[in-house]
Amino acid sequence: MLLALSATATAAVSAISVRTSETSSARESMANAHKATKLLIDRANADVTRYRSETLATRKAQLKDLLMAQVGALDQLRAAVGRGELTDREARAIAEQMLFTYRYANNDYFFVFTPDMVSVVEPNPSFVGNMIDYQDANGKYFFQEFREVVLTRGDGYVDYVATRAGATLPSPKVSYVFLYKPWNWVIGTGVYLDDIDNEAATRLSTTKLSLSNALAEVKFNGEGFLFVLDQEGHVVVTPARRDLSALSNTDWGRRLSASLAGGEPSTTGEIVNFSNVAQFRNGRSEQWQFDVSSVDSSKWLLVSAVPQAELNSVGNSLAVRQIVIAAAILLVGLLIGLLSSRRIVRPVQALTSAAVALEEDRFDPGTLDRAAARNDEVGALARAFRRMASEIVERERKLRDQVTQLRVVVDRAKVEREVGEITESDFFQRLQERAEEMRRND
Fold it and tell me: Gene Ontology cellular component (predicted)?
C-alpha cells in the first residue's frame, strides 16, 4: 500500500512538472513567433523608411545644388561689378530679376530675404513684407528658423507646411536657405514633399498587405495569432481572413486595445506580457495571453495573442499522458509484485503449515515437495526444514517405541513384585497351609 501511495505521489509530481514544463515551452513558442514576425515587420518598415529618407536626402541635395548654381551666378555679377562692367545696383537688380523669374521642377522658385526676414525677392505674394512672425498651419515660425539657421551655421534646411497654389490643405515642404554674405541676403528655395509621402504611403500600403498575408501564415500554439496596432491602439495590420473589427467597435475591444497600447515597452526589442479577457472566439469571454513589442523605425506595436487554454492544453494533455503512463507502470509493477509475492508467499505458507503440523504431530514431508523443488533461497529453506522435520519425526517415533518397550518391562516387574508380596503374606501362607492340610486329609 505504501509503495502504491509513493508511486502515485511520484506520478502526480511528475505530471505537474511535465505540465509546467510544457506550458513554459508553449510560452517560449509564442515569444519565438513574436520575435520572428517582428524581424519581418522591421525589415518591411525599414524598406519604406529607407525609401523616404533616401528620397528626401536626394531632394535636399538637389535643392542645395540648384541654389548654389544661383550663388555662382551672383558671384559672376559681382565679378562684373569688380571689372566695372556693372554697378552694384545694376548687378543686384539683374540678380533680383533672375531669381524672381527662375522656375524649376513643379514651378518651384527662389526667394530672397534680409536677415530680419523682410522680403527682397518673393514670387509668392503671400510672403511679401516682414515675415518674421509668420506661422504655418501647425504654428511653426519657420521664417524665424530661416534666420537662426543662416546666422548660426551659414546654411541649412527647414521643414514646415505650406499650401500649394489652388489647394486648400497644407502640404509638407522643406527649404534650403543660404546666407549670401556679400549682399547680406538670405537666399532660399523649397519643394513640397507630398509626392514623397504619397509614394511612401503607397509602399506602406503594399507592405501592410504583404504583412497581412504573412501574419495569416504564422501558426503557433493552436489558435494563436498576431496583429499590429499603432500607439493610439488602432489596428494597423490584421492577419488576412481574420476579423478584428471588434477591437474598434466594441467596448471590450476598445478597452483591450487601450490596455495594450498603454503598456508599450519602454525600449525597442523588449517584449511585455499581458493577461486580459477577450472575446475573439465566438464572442465568448476567456482569458488570453498577449505579448507586445515596439516595431523599429515606426510607431507600431506588434501584438501576439493566444488563449490561455491553448497554452495550458499541451501541458495538460502531456500531464494526463504522463499520469496514464505512470498508472500503467504502477499497475504492471503491482501485478509483478503480486505475482512475485505470491510466488514467495505460497512456499512460506507451506513452511508455516508444515511447522504447525510438526507441532501437532501430523507432519507430512510430501507437503513441502513443491517448495523444496525451487532453485532459490526459499527452496533451500524448504529442503532444510523438510530434512530437519523428518529427522524430528523419526526421533519421536523411536522415542515412542522405546517408551512403549520400557512401559512393558516396567509393568511385568510390577506384576512379579505384587505376586511376591501376595505369596509372602500371612494370609497367603495360611491359605497354603490349609490347602496342604486338606490334601493330607484326602
Answer: plasma membrane
Grid cell at residue 341 = 509475492
Cα separation of 251 and 259, whole Å? 12
Residue 160: φ, ψ to 5°? -165, -175
Is the domain of 270 the same as that of 293? yes
Three-class secondary structure of residue 307 per DSSP: strand
Q: Which of 328, 265, 347, 337 is nearest to 302 (CA)?
A: 265
Task: Mention every residue, 6+ apart, whose C-beta is less than 8 A from residue 223.
Answer: 281, 306, 307, 310
| Residue 186 and residue 250 in one domain | no
Task: Verify that 113 and 213 share a domain, yes or no.
Answer: no
Residues 193 and 302 in one domain: no
Q: Mean pLDDT, the chain, as a whole number?
A: 79
Best CA proximity match to 45, nearest among 201, 204, 197: 204
pTM of structure: 0.56
**Count of other CB atoms within 10 angstroms of residue 102:** 17
Full domain range(s) for residue 135:
51-198
Q: Could you tell me if 149 and 216 lie in one domain?
A: no
Residue 264's region, left for phi above 0, alpha for psi from -120 to 50, else beta, is beta
* 176, 64 Cβ separation under 8 angstroms: yes
* Amino acid at site 152: T
User: Residue 70: which CATH number?
Assistant: 3.30.450.20
Q: Give all strands of the β-sheet with 119-121 in edge-to-edge order.
A: 119-121, 110-113, 185-192, 170-180, 155-163
Q: What is the pLDDT of residues 284-336, one digit of tens each?
A: 899 998 888 887 666 788 888 888 887 766 544 544 455 555 555 555 555 55
For residue 361, is it within any domain? no
pLDDT in tens, 7-20: 455 545 454 554 45
Whether the predicted pLDDT of 57 surpasses 80 = yes
Query: Could you tell me which residue, 189 or 32, shows the higher pLDDT?
Result: 189
* CA distance linking residue 297 with residue 275, whole number of Å: 27
Give the span between the Cα atoms of 244 and 4, in whole angstroms.
Answer: 52
Separation between Cα atoms, residue 414 and residue 121, nearest integer Å: 171
In eight-state DSSP terms, residue 182 is: T
Sign of the CA dihedral 304, 310, 312, 315?
Answer: negative
